[in-house]
Specification:
The chain is of the alpha/beta class and 318 residues long. The chain contains twelve helices and ten strands. It has a six-stranded mixed beta sheet with strand order 1-2-10-7-8-9, with helices on both faces. A four-stranded parallel beta sheet has the order 5-4-3-6, sandwiched between helices.
């Protein structure tokens, strides 16, 4: 599977078996006891991937990737670029098998994530102001030094790992009608949507992007990959200028709609989750809940919604 070029539901099932002893099966909790519900006349569940090992869903895809590599590739080490979470996932996966990990970060990466990366044993390098610039550098280093480059969202093996989250949602909340997913480059929603659409007929998948980084929404509307001229969001984990064709193809095939939320909406959602559950989440992890709170997505009466809370952090509370 290490040379896998496509993403099929069977790949996600295989990933589930491969990584089940490596990552956590995170809770999927109903919000019926919450003080102020995010939806009216609908049921809301939260998939708390912020409680995942390393702090986000990224540990799933990184673990699946590392566990499919031949021994020689592992020994040469891993290199990636990240807004923080993907790097942490790769650092975690690399540390588990004892291989070196290099992570290239944009200057906007929160200091708390830099510290966590170093504590997981990764070597950290800064390159550029946005993820795309850090990523270009990581790819050059991988080619120069013979290291394995781990793409955060356009690698089918990584996406298969992320898709295991969708399998868990169906197992934990079989009555779910709609799942809301934050979008950065599109790896999470690609894997989750593939798993959900294969596992339950009629289920809807709604993507959520920042208004300041509508990368895949603009690409879907244009019918082709669009590279944004500027990024205008503090949610750095949701802010690549450009996705990739494989992600766009899956999103067009499996995602029902993409809605947009403001940074302040995500911040308010993060504070709401802190008040209700004591959860510290990063800004971008509040996107799915924010879409419900502000009406960017309006569920019908009786609809069962699941919102993925995809990453831990403190920037959502600032």
């Amino acid at each position: 599977m290490s040379d896998q070029q496509t993403l099929d539901p069977e790949h996600i099932q295989q990933a589930h078996e491969r990584i089940k002893e490596t990552v956590r099966r995170t809770p999927c909790l109903r919000t019926r006891f919450f003080h102020s519900p995010a939806v009216q006349d609908a049921a809301l569940s939260l998939k708390l991937e912020c409680l995942q090992v390393s702090g986000s869903f990224k540990a799933r895809g990184a673990s699946n990737k590392v566990l499919t590599l031949p021994a020689a590739a592992r020994e040469r080490g891993l290199v990636t670029a990240s807004g923080g979470n993907h790097g942490l996932g790769v650092a975690y996966a690399g540390r588990r098998i004892g291989v070196p990990v290099h992570v290239y970060l944009p200057a906007s990466t929160p200091a708390s994530k830099v510290e966590k990366l170093e504590r997981w044993g990764a070597r950290v390098f800064f390159e550029g102001e946005v993820w795309d610039e850090a990523n270009a550098r990581a790819q050059r280093v991988a080619e120069r030094d013979g290291m394995t480059y781990v793409h955060p969202f356009a690698d089918p093996v990584v996406m298969a790992g992320q898709g295991t989250l969708g399998l868990e949602i169906l197992g934990q909340s079989p009555s779910v009608d709609t799942v809301l997913v934050s979008i950065g480059g599109g790896g999470l929603i690609s894997g989750v949507a593939t798993a959900l659409k294969a596992g339950k007929a009629g289920i809807k998948v709604i993507g959520v992007e920042p208004t300041g980084a509508p990368t895949l929404k603009r690409s879907v509307e244009a019918g082709r990959l669009v590279e944004l001229d500027v990024i205008n969001t503090e949610a750095n984990t949701l802010a690549p200028r450009r996705s990739e064709q494989i992600n766009l193809d899956i999103v067009r095939a499996c995602v029902d709609d993409i809605v947009l939320v403001e940074d302040d909406d995500m911040r308010a959602a993060a504070r709401w989750l802190w008040f209700e559950m004591g959860l510290g989440i990063e800004l971008g992890a509040g996107a799915a809940v924010a879409a419900l709170r502000v009406g960017a997505y309006r569920p019908s009466s009786g609809e069962h919604i699941c919102a993925i809370v995809c990453g831990a952090g403190t920037d959502g509370l600032q």
